[in-house]
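Sample pair:
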Amino acid sequence: MVSIIAISLRSWFGLSNLVTDDHLDLLGMVLLATGLMTAYGYVFEVFDALYSGDAHELQTLADRLTGVYAWTYWGAIVFNFVPLQALWWRGVRRSGWSLMLISVAVAIGMWLERYMILVTSLYRDFLVSSWSKFTPTF
């Protein structure tokens, strides 16, 4: 969100002297680093469920990987990890449009992650009688 705001303000108000390409480069490096930490979290989440062998954890993992809400899990992985790989190149990090597109993709991925965490926690509880498809409402 910081990079989205910084790039937007830079573009709208002509603040190229205040928000320089060096600032965008630093924002890109921070975005890449935090994205890699998020990817590590996804990998460890799968490892933890498999290593524990807990039936509820394994069922939640299976639901996230191949279940009804798998689109949120895979969407979060795709949007939070794949676009970030372009940030390994300095030219991409220093380009306002590229950094903006990648930042928007990550924002979408983070929304999908929050949705995944909320929904897969609510639709299949520890109480078997409460298992049902979750339908969000306002």
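The chain has a mean pLDDT of 88.
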